[in-house]
Design brief:
Beta-galactosidase, Chain A, domain 5; 679 residues; eight-stranded antiparallel beta sheet; alpha+beta; 37% helix
């Protein structure tokens, strides 16, 4: 009881009331009671329309005006552009759809997963071998892997986003085998996931994603003889139940981040698709109001996303791009705040695009995408291309490089044409400070061979900082277009507590650690015991180059005051200075996580050479000097084999360099990053 009262401390009356209402609703559901009006009278619930049969309702949906993504308006025109402009994408779609026919799935960072022989076991995690029980959704402990295995893997299958490549393959080939599998899977899912029972009803956001997949699937398969009115009616009833559940269990206070905005987008799409149904307009308007109101809280004025996680930033950009596209299809007015914040979200992503087209995976990433299963997680250019076409932004087009198939699927043939006709506009600036978000970017240019440096000096995270990492004053960098110093990624959320804590730790980032501890200490998979406050001290741009200085208080518990400085010269050379004020004996270690493309040769304790694994070409030399007033240990370079996670669930071998020393006085460590051709 005391623990529960502590949780209520500081919460508003509105939050307490809403949480109590949701708790009471779940208890009523567990008791098996139905609220008044919960039953669905499908044929008599579409406004002035009165349908005598499911067949009549089905025909109505198949023939009315499409208020969905423009690619669904004219199948032949969309496929013609795909065949002509994106042949590799066409082949990839068919390969993935055929893999699904054989019962294998590529999900997150896992390849060739099998969930069953014919139809999937919707409650099974093939990675852990754990199958969840079929009990009320509110009775699960979300963070306990002994109950669900890695529920992220289970949920990724149950998002049903693989219906999209099935549907697109059906459009391309006309092969009814793809439609037959879709129909059998939908029917089996509805049969084996009774309302409110099982792991797939835990998260309202997952229900929203699944609903969006069903709506996509309708537009792909409604011409197939396998997809009849009986299956359609069951799906419509399922969508109605989904919307009611999402509306009742919105993450307004539990997860007011991409969970809430994802749920809102789901409501918006369900309400749009079911227009005419009693309740549909309310769902749509509720979704829209949430999406617009959350822009003020979740997107900072400099365009940064509040969770300090680039992957969730991309999710947020995808949500609001989707909303912009659908509003235009409907002919609905555009909200000025929506336009302004969307432009800022995309410009932030543009600046965070490394020369190889990928965004560094700062903070958590969950391996998912909104509409584009199988697309690259880190490669940001397809999203920028959609943004360029939506906003008529020539700079976004320049950085995206070329039109991708995602533009076609979301905006149709006209969207692809619009992108192609859009004039490219060069980005003249090479330095950008996102001071509200605490992100600082310095680059030598915007081509594939540029240098790139991004520094993290922002808040630890948002609210309980669930998607944050202990990466205060961390950095990522590319030289000559080659990623050299990287973020380790995420790998897992709840399936492996030790791995979860490691990938969030300071030692898994390009950071300082003290006595083996990081700047923040975790307390469960989505919370922290304590975390630091970071502060930018100096940001100066001049003819000679750029200077950044920042500090955080994460090591004051060890009697250590810490400051980090970057000096970036015009010739590309970077001097990194870590300044330590220290009156006690402590062990210090500077970690440098290398890209899997890079290997290290430690020449001595003053010089390390970094080379490409392929071709053994030197990319960078690190020249080290310890600056001190009181003589002490000079420090030593070491290297250890580690693993990084470029996408959730995947591990890739890499090398981590460590410069370590024990000191009981003030000192500085100066590391110069010298390019082979630097003058």
């Amino acid at each position: 009881m005391i623990a529960r009262l502590k949780k209520l401390k500081g919460r508003s009356v509105a939050e307490i009331v809403e949480r109590g209402r949701q708790k009471a609703a779940a208890i009523v559901e567990r008791a098996g009671a139905r609220s008044k009006g919960a039953e669905i009278d499908l044929l008599r619930s579409f406004g002035p329309e009165r349908f005598r049969s499911a067949e009549e309702l089905f025909r109505y949906f198949c023939t009315r005006k499409v208020l969905f993504f423009p690619s669904c308006i004219d199948r032949d025109a969309t496929i013609a552009v795909l065949e002509d402009s994106f042949p590799d994408e066409r082949d990839a779609i068919i390969r993935r759809a055929e893999s699904i026919l054989s019962g294998t799935y590529d999900l997150l960072g896992y390849q060739g997963l099998r969930f069953g022989d014919t139809t999937p076991d919707w409650h099974f995690d093939p990675v852990s071998g754990k199958r969840s029980q079929l009990r009320h959704w509110s009775q699960f402990d979300e963070t306990d892997p002994t109950e669900t295995g890695d529920k992220k893997v289970v949920w990724e299958l149950n998002r049903h986003q693989y219906f999209l490549p099935l549907g697109r393959a059906y459009w391309i080939t006309g092969d009814e085998a793809f439609a037959a599998v879709f129909v059998s899977h939908v029917e089996d899912w509805l049969r084996r996931n009774p309302p409110k029972l099982g792991v797939n009803w835990i998260s309202s956001m997952e229900i929203a994603y699944r609903s969006i997949s069903w709506i996509w699937a309708f537009h792909y398969f409604h011409g197939s003889p396998h997809f009849g009115s009986d299956v359609f009616a069951k799906m419509i009833e399922g969508l109605i139940l989904n919307a009611r559940h999402i509306e009742r269990y919105l993450s307004t206070y539990s997860s007011p981040n991409t969970h809430l905005t994802g749920e809102a987008l789901g409501l918006y799409l369900i309400g749009t698709f079911l227009r005419g149904f009693a309740g549909a307009e309310r769902w749509k308007s509720t979704g829209y109001e949430i999406l617009i109101s959350e822009l003020g809280r979740q997107v900072r004025e400099d365009g940064g996303y509040v969770e300090q996680a680039t992957h969730y930033h991309r999710y947020t950009a995808e949500f609001y791009l989707t909303l912009a596209i659908l509003r235009k299809v409907e002919g609905s007015p555009s909200d000025p705040v929506h336009e302004r914040k969307l432009a800022k979200l995309l410009k932030f992503l543009m600046w965070m695009t490394q020369p190889n087209g990928e965004t560094p995976l700062i903070g958590d990433e969950d391996g998912g995408r909104l509409h584009y299963p199988g697309g690259g997680i880190a490669d940001i250019r397809e999203t920028l291309a959609v943004g360029a076409a939506v906003l008529n932004d020539g700079q976004l087009k320049t950085v995206s490089g070329q039109c991708g198939a995602e533009v076609l699927w979301l905006m149709g043939p006209d969207g692809s044409k619009k992108f192609d006709e859009l004039e490219t506009v060069p980005v003249d600036e090479s330095v950008q400070a996102f001071q509200q978000s605490g992100v600082y970017v310095i680059r030598s240019g915007w081509d594939r061979s540029s240098n790139f440096l991004a520094i993290d000096c922002g808040e630890h995270g948002f609210m309980n900082c669930g998607h944050a990492h202990a990466d205060a004053l961390a950095f990522v960098a590319s030289f000559g277009g080659v990623p050299v110093f990287v973020d380790s990624g995420t790998y897992t959320y709840t399936a492996d507590r030790t791995a979860r804590d490691h990938f969030r730790s300071s030692s898994a980032h390009n950071c300082l650690t003290v006595n083996g501890h990081g700047s923040a200490e975790p307390n469960g998979p989505f919370s922290w015991k304590h975390w630091p406050d970071s502060k930018m001290l100096e940001w100066k741009c001049g003819d000679a180059g750029v200077i950044f200085r920042g500090t955080h208080n994460g090591y004051e518990r060890f009697g250590v005051r810490y400051e980090r400085e970057f000096q970036v010269r015009k010739n590309g050379e970077i001097t990194l200075v870590d300044k330590i004020k220290n009156a006690e004996t402590n062990q210090f270690a500077l970690s440098f996580v290398l890209s899997p493309l890079i290997e290290a040769e430690i020449r001595d304790n003053e010089c390390v050479s970094l080379l490409t694994k392929e071709g053994k070409r030197e990319v960078l030399a690190i020249v080290t000097k310890v600056i001190e007033k009181i003589p002490g240990e000079s420090g030593v370079w070491g290297a250890e084999q580690t693993q990084i996670s470029p996408v959730y669930g995947m591990l890739v071998p890499a090398t981590k360099l460590i410069f370590s020393l024990n000191r009981n006085s003030d000192f500085e460590v100066e590391n110069r990053f010298v390019l082979p051709d630097a003058e």
